[in-house]
Structures are given as C-alpha cells and as structure tokens.
Design a protein that fits this description.
With about 675 residues, the protein is mainly β. It has no helices and 63 strands.
Length: about 675
C-alpha cells in the first residue's frame, strides 16, 4: 500500500490565546509537554511574544502550542542551569548560566558562547539599556557594547575573593537617569552608567545577605532575599528596614505592577500581592486545599515569576515545571478600589451604588467604599449583623440611605454619611427572616419579598402585608418583585408568578400555556417593551406586554439548563444574560455573543445580584469571583494581543523539517531582571 504523506503547518499567534470554553485560571507545562527540566529558574517574554524558560538543564521556548529546547554548547551538565534571560534593542536574545553568557544566533537556531575567555563563571543577572548589556556575575559587573562587542569589567572590590564582587541583581535608578542599583551580598551598590563611581550602602550590622531580586518604586527599593524575607531601602534616608512577613523567609522574585501593587513570589508560601501604599497583603495565590479555589497553584515553591503587560501570569516552580494563566483582555474588570478593597475572590450577591459610593453585599458580609473620599467599612457577624449573607440592597434616593436585606438576619439601614449600620425599626418582626428582594413601585412604596410573604412600607411605616392566606399571592419564598412601565408588579415566588395590578395581587391573569407556573427568578422589561422571564433553570422566555405572544430564547450556548442569574439591557440595546454557566448578550442582529475568560470574566458563575448601569453606561454584575464592571462601548474592539502570525514549525510525517526559526522581532524589546520581572523600555 502506498504510504500517504501528511504535512502539517503549525501557525501560531505568538501570544497565548485563551480557549474560550475554559474557565480555569492556570494551565501547566511539565517534562511531559517537552520541558527540559522541572526546575524553572527564570521566565522572559520577548518582543515577538515567545516565552523563554530558563530551567535547571537548558533554555526552552514556548510558542503557545509546543516547547522547543535549545541545547547549551560546551557546558557540563551541572553548569547548564539558566539564571537570566533578556533581549537587547537589536532584538537579540541573551542568556546567562552557571558557566557564562550566550546569545541566540541571527536565524534563531542555536545558542552561541560569548566572551568565553573572560566570562567563564556564573552569570546571575542581565540588564539591557540602550546599546549596553549589563551582566551581573559572581566576579563583578561586565558591560557589553552590543554594537561593537567591546566588553568592560567593573570590580567593586580589589580583593578578588570579596563577596562584594558578586552582583545578584541590577535595576535602573528611576530618580537618576543612567544610574544603576546593584544588589550584592554586602548591600546595595549605586553606580553610574559606566560603572566608574560606586557607592556602597551596606546591610545593617555588616551582615552578608543573599539576594534573589530587587524592584524600585519611587524612593523605595524592595529587596527579595533568600534568608530574611523582603527588606526595603529608602534612597532618601539611606536606611534599611524589614518588610511585612509573607510566611517564608525565601523571596524568589518581585513583579511590580506600576500602580502601587507588588507581586512577591516565595519558596514555601506561594505568591502574594502587596499594596505598597498600605504595606499590606491584599491577595494570596497558593496551592490551597479547596477544589473550588480556581486560583490555586500546583506548588507553593515558586522559583520564578512573570506578570507580563497583557496581564498573564507565568509561574515557575521547583520540581513542578510552569503554570500560566490564559490571555485576558480587560473588557471585563474585577472591581478594585485603589488599596481600599479588592473584590477578587468574593461571591458578590448584592450592590447599591451612587457616584463614587458602592455598597457591596457578599456571602461574608457587607462592604462599603467611597473612592472619592478614601472611605471604607466592613460589617459582618457577629459584631455588626445577625447574618452575614446579603441578598439585596436598595438605595433610597430621597435621603441617600441604603436598605440591606439579609438571609436570616432581616433588614438593616446603612447611612453613608457616618458609615453606620442599624436595624430597620419598622421591620422588627423580620429581624430573623430571609429577605430576598427590596424594591420600590412607581409611587415610591417600598416592597420587600421574604420567606413569609410581601411587606410594604411608606415613609418608614408598614402599610401592607400580603400572604397566601390573605391575598392571591402564591405560596413560598418571594424571590423577585419587578415593576414594569405600565405599573404592574411582577411577583416571582417558589410556586409561580403573580401580578400586582395597582390594587390587588392576581394569579389568574395569564394565558394558557404561559410559564407562570414555573419557578421564575428574574423579570425584566427592555426598551422595546419586551418582557423577559428567566426561570430557575432553563431557557428564557420573551413576551410582549400583553402576553399575547411569547417565545423561548436560549441564552447559554453550552447548556440548555443554565442556572438563573440576571437580565439587563445596555445603552446600545444589547440584552445581557448572566447564568451559573456564563455571560452572554444578544447583539443588534439578534446573535447571541458569549463572553469568556479571554474577555476578563474570572468565573462562569454569575449570581442573582440585581445588575446595575452607572452614569457612564458601564454594567456592574455580580460574580462568584468578584464584582465585575463592563465598558460596553468597547464590545467591538479587536480582541487578542497584537502580534503578527508567524510559522513556528513545519512537520512532515511527524518530524520537524523547519531549518530556521524566524524570530526577528518587530516590536520594541522588553527587559527582564534575574527573576522574571518585565517592563517596557
């Protein structure tokens, strides 16, 4: 039989694009995926979008699909550990290992030894600046002119055995152009660009401390040590100090975000996000023990870390390979209020907001933030509330106070003027009740849906109490009360839907075959006066106002029975649906468009929080992983990172036949310090 030949051309956008159906936070690479070693010491993303991994045995390149290994010529096995990777202005890739420095050939096919007669020892760090590549080694600082290949050498101490000559890490001084800070075992060295003027800032008590990385923010240098946790140095006062305890004395990498936040990787306690303004850990990503922890790492022993400009996180482990997050554009943002509050990881169930004020109800309590005046407060059990699970929030436009309904704790009133939380005096009998919805009708009467019927209040006084025994209200919990433009109140209970017609509640005004006997969790009227009914599970029903016409609409492309969440229309007349299986909207052409992790959605699980639209037209949605904001005006923006497609391999009958690697960069390169931090130059 004649053998058929199959040729596969692998075409990859050189950036890691998300699987739109995936909701996981991390993916991993191990030796089974082609890694040369499970120890990943440093990570670098070049200007073409390739991710380079310095392992304990080799240099690996990940193109988003496959790992390619680059052998290091002329080195003993125990010397092959790659410690640093960077890219210079001419687009050339450089690496430093335990035996010297290497550069990638012009065709991208192999590594070539550089300055083998002068640099034949451990290279710790690489720092490009203009035409100069600064090389931190165990025997001083080398300066390589990448245009003419001239190599200079700076030795901080004339004593060749002095540990002051060990340069661990290099950073440019943001306050003095052309100057550098060098980390050594004896302390920080301040150097001019030529390395001719060196000033040593010794560690306290003349102690020698091994350093893995440094980062600079304003006048503070953050020092990742291998024995003392994070230390800081104030360039104004010239004083060192110990920083906050991260549960591990070994800090392996630092990654500043540029907006007052700093990622710190540890060997033992995972990764911590620090607010440098507050000197406080605001979030931790670690191995965890819960299967519901979508952000958990495979190991707490983190050796390298990269948070790239696209927001992807790359985590290198000791004996664990690498984990990385999928690409996300920032169409959907998880709400963070400077360093006052970060809702990431919170299950948000209710929201009230006005201007810069936000009152956020979660399973763990109530959070208030006013970003304009820098005010915040938290209320939870047992000190502030009888029950911490908040189900509904309504703002009274007349006095600016918020009514807060809880599950098992009744109703509270929050006053933003003095940030106080008190009981709603008129509803004392509900102090231990389940409150599902608080809303107002067109006349200003407040309606409260509970597990014991509906309560109505006017000017703080109870005016009515509807039950299934004194009215046509259906039995069970009252989950939703929605007033349409005609003044009708749609009441959704455990056992079906009824309507308040302005004078009484009726359950007999529906046509045959309608879904009024189903458990409906959400009712919404759009700008075309269509009524939308979302059941507890299943497809949504759209009807006209008279209920003479209706049809079923599928709102989840992956599931026929999604759990109920919410419905809302934006300013461009897109109708949005959030369910327990994801987020989608119907565009102007009637096409259902899902949003996924690649758009910034952190979790597919959306809650029953009543969605809101602010004065800018942004949507605010409740999610199991935070309070989400969507700038709907950006829906038509091109998605994905802007990298040109390149052919990364050609495979014939299972074997690669591509002789060269077209890696020449078209964008400005970025620089990498020793342990994986990246910034644009």
């Amino acid at each position: 039989m004649r053998l058929k030949r199959f040729i596969f051309i692998i075409l990859t956008i050189i950036s890691i694009l998300a699987n739109p159906l995936s909701a996981q936070q991390f993916r991993g690479l191990t030796v089974d995926d082609g890694l040369s070693d499970l120890v990943v010491n440093t990570i670098y993303k070049d200007s073409a979008g390739y991710v380079w991994l310095g392992t304990g045995a080799s240099l690996d390149r990940f193109d988003g699909m496959r790992v390619k290994r680059y052998g290091i010529p002329g080195t003993a096995i125990h010397q092959q550990r790659v410690n640093a990777i960077t890219e210079t202005a001419d687009g050339r890739l450089w690496i430093g290992n335990n035996e010297g420095i290497f550069s990638l050939s012009d065709d991208g096919s192999a590594l070539n030894r550089v300055a083998s007669d002068r640099i034949m020892f451990r290279v710790n760090s690489l720092y490009p600046s203009g035409d100069t590549l600064y090389i931190g080694t165990e025997r001083g600082l080398f300066l390589l002119n990448t245009r003419n290949n001239r190599l200079g050498h700076v030795v901080p101490s004339r004593d060749v055995m002095s540990r002051l000559n060990i340069v661990y890490a290099i950073e440019e001084d943001p306050a003095e152009k052309g100057s550098l800070w060098l980390a050594t075992p004896a302390g920080l060295l301040h150097s001019d660009a030529a390395g001719q003027r060196l000033e040593l800032e010794r560690f306290p008590d003349r102690e020698e401390i091994p350093v893995n990385d440094i980062a600079i923010e304003n006048n503070i240098i953050y020092i990742a040590t291998a024995s003392k946790g994070i230390m800081t140095f104030d360039t104004d006062t010239h004083e060192y100090s110990r920083y906050i305890d991260l549960g591990s004395s070994v800090i392996t990498a630092l990654a500043p975000t540029g907006n007052g936040l700093l990622y710190a990787a540890t060997d033992g306690s995972g990764i911590h996000l620090i607010s440098t303004r507050r000197r406080k850990v605001v979030s931790t990503i670690d191995r965890g023990t819960s299967d519901k922890n979508e952000r958990k790492l495979r190991s707490n022993s983190v050796y390298s870390l990269l948070v790239d400009p696209a927001g992807q996180m790359w985590v290198g482990y000791y004996q664990g390979g690498i984990d990385y997050t999928l690409f996300q554009r920032d169409l959907v943002e998880t709400y963070k209020a400077d360093d006052l509050l970060n809702t990431s990881g919170m299950t948000v169930r209710a929201l009230g907001m006005h201007g810069s004020e936000k009152l956020i109800g979660t399973r763990e309590g109530l959070y208030y933030v006013d970003s304009s005046r820098g005010a915040s407060a938290r209320f939870t059990t047992p000190d502030d509330m009888r029950a911490s699970m908040v189900f509904t929030i309504m703002r009274d436009a007349a006095d600016g106070r918020y009514y807060v309904g809880t599950y098992g704790g009744g109703i509270y009133i929050f006053n933003p003027a003095n940030m106080s939380l008190i009981d709603f005096a008129a509803a004392k009998e509900l102090s231990n009740s389940n409150i599902f919805v608080i809303t107002t009708d067109n006349e200003g009467t407040m309606w409260v849906g509970t597990s014991s019927g509906i309560y109505c209040y006017r000017n703080g006084v109870e005016t009515a109490h509807y039950t299934d025994s004194n009215s046509r209200l259906l039995r069970g919990n009252v989950y939703e009360i929605y007033f349409d433009s005609a003044g009708r109140g749609w009441i959704c209970t455990e056992t079906g839907v009824c309507v308040y017609n302005g004078s009484e509640i009726r359950d007999d005004s529906f046509p045959n075959g309608f879904i009024n006997h189903d458990k409906i969790r959400e009712v919404y009227e759009d700008s075309n006066h269509n009524l939308w009914f979302m059941p507890d599970r299943g497809a949504v029903t759209r009807a006209n106002m008279e209920l003479t016409e209706w049809q079923t609409v599928t709102v989840d492309p992956k599931s026929n029975t999604p759990g109920a969440g919410f419905i809302i229309e934006d300013n461009d007349n897109h109708v949005w649906f959030g369910t327990s299986d994801g987020l989608s909207y119907i565009d102007k052409d009637g096409i259902l468009r899902p949003l996924t992790y690649a758009d910034g959605v952190p979790s597919p699980i959306f809650t029953l929080m009543n969605p809101m639209m602010d004065e800018n037209g942004d949507l605010w949605l409740g999610n199991s992983d935070g309070l989400l904001r969507i700038d709907t005006s950006r829906l038509d923006e091109e998605t994905g990172p802007k990298h040109r497609p390149v052919v990364t391999d050609v495979i014939v009958n299972g074997k690669s036949v591509m002789a060269v690697d077209p890696r020449r960069a078209t964008a400005r390169p970025r620089r990498r310090t020793r342990r994986g931090r990246e910034t644009d130059r």
